Amino acid sequence: MKNLLFVTLIFSFAFAKAQTSLPEITLKNLDGKEISLATLSDDKTVVVSLWATWCVPCIRELDTIAEVYEEMQEEINFELVAISVDDSRSTRRVKPAVMGKGWEYTVLLDPNNDVRRHLGNPNVPLTLIIKNGVIVYRHSSFTPGAEDELFDKFKELAG
Amino acid sequence: MKKILIAIVALTTMQITIAQENRGTFSGGFESNSQWYQDDEGLGTIAPQDQLRSNNYFTLRYSYDKFTAGIQYELFAPNPLLGYFEGFKGNGIGTYYLNFKHEGLDITGGHFYDQFGSGLIYRSWEDRQLGIDNSIRGVRINYEFTDYLVATAFTGNQRVGFEVSEGTITGLNAELDLSNALDLETGIQIGASYVNRYQTSTSPDLNFPADVGAYSARADITFSKFFLGAEYVYKEQDAFVLDGFVSNNNYQDGRALLLNTGYATKGLGINATFRAVENMGFYSDREASGNAFLTNTINYVPGYTKQQDYAVSNIYVYAPQPIVSPGEGKAGEIGGQIDVYYTAKKGSTLGGKYGTKFEFNYANWSGLDATFDVTNNTYQASLLSRNEKYFEEASVAVKKRFSRNFSTIFTAVHTEYNTTIIEGSGDFLRGDAFIIDALYKLDGGRSVRMDLQHLSADADRGNWAAATAEYAFSPYLSMYVTDLYNYDETDIHYYSVGGSYTRGRTRVAMNYGRQRGGLVCVGGVCRFVPENTGLTLNISTNF
Fold first, then answer.
1. What's the pTM value of the predicted model, to 2 decimals?
2. Is this complex's ipTM strictly greater than 0.95?
């Protein structure tokens, strides 16, 4: 029990000091090209969404945003990078799914969940707003209406 | 105890250093999954000896300049949740590592996760829902020679509960991006790997394999809208193991072939996968071959079927069969699946005002055509042969939005399931499932979701029905109630009620109800969970 107390103390201390950024990892895009995560938000604000082909709320979220994506890109410079955490069982399903759905997002593959692990193994969907490499907003789960909140937050943080 | 103290001292020192210099960053998380098990007369289950069980994970990561250090403390008290590997009992430092990254060099000492190719030859990963952490504790070096050549080398022992494997695993991998090297329009990536397991011989036989190596070669090609990939793995002879008993003069090799091809353009995506495997169990401890908790697994052979989204379509799920068992007539499997994603455009007949999305999947798996010598536990098989049907499934999902606020998903699944092969005994089952899921968006971030599900099956427990209602008070708070009812045979309701609250870095979920016993599958890997009833609490936070 004492151990637990110690650990909790240490963790709460770390918690107070935490300032998370995206890991310095390169991921492949759908054409097999390597993209560095660290440079994703150079001089701009981007939304990063962790998703998987087998995750119903993830697909709902990305479908919902896709409907107004062009509009939002023009209006508020909204940009979304969708990182698929599909492992090698389903990672080959990602490209056909993304193309079949007509999504215009930048899509990256994280088949061994390196990014997800770095972020503390969260449930997907996980939506982040990254500004100059630092995570400034974090939300997991998706229910309809959450997209409006995301656009508002983005406007507020990017502005 | 000592370990924890050391860790605490180290962390505290780090904290002080940061406080002084104000450099470096912390991140980490805490996850707790607890269940309070109850006796349930209706199910005929009795709560286990420790009624309140809890799996807890604390992770902490500290980055400073080119260095990153991480540690994961785990507590399974007083016992892990039902269905988890008992080697997790207790508490301790589960994983730790120190990583150095500079230009193209990436060195890790301690526990690490990685995979070569699709994982068919090697993959170490963590899945808390499945209770798997087969990270390797050792040294890993990854180096980018140029923008088209990357190589990895590692050696170490695999994590098993709070111990490590007896066998040592060593791996080498090289990946060459020919399109970058030769400046081609067509994307071409090739790769090759070698993975070795060394474990002291336990046999007087001089030919007994202490070293077991596996080789793989692969290539991926992308030309405009088409893509094509191939991977072949050969595993050297390893001792045959039956129920933990290692044979002294029966050594068998294994092989696998994976092919994948597809076509993707805006509005249409197609993918087809074919895989054949023969004797591809690959373990860091030969005695662990085929163990139920999936410990010591070096390679990853997932079930290539669609992960279904609803309760009734998740009862009869295929579990892959890569392991040889002459007594059961198994030498491996062959099969594949096809996925089609199609969007009917807005304004078209099928598309309507908002466009309609279609998803289609077909999967078919069979055993290899093999002859078995059950007395000597040997077999003869060809990798590219087909015999008894193990599993077949066809499913279609149609996603249709009717208005700004109202959308539905209709799903139909036809399943054929070889119960004897997949679960050990039982009649061959054919089932048809139909599911309708409707979502209505209210204002202020509120929404209502409902689904109705039915499965008619001609074996096992027959027909099932299920329904779910979910209400979201806001994007942060939602509640649900669901019931899965086997009305045909057992008359059992697997009901559950719960809710979740998520805000920023933190998520809390609570539910009370019955868990249907059987295979719980995540990412095509399955774990058996006994039937139980209880109150579950999940807390997770990240920072």
1. 0.91
2. no
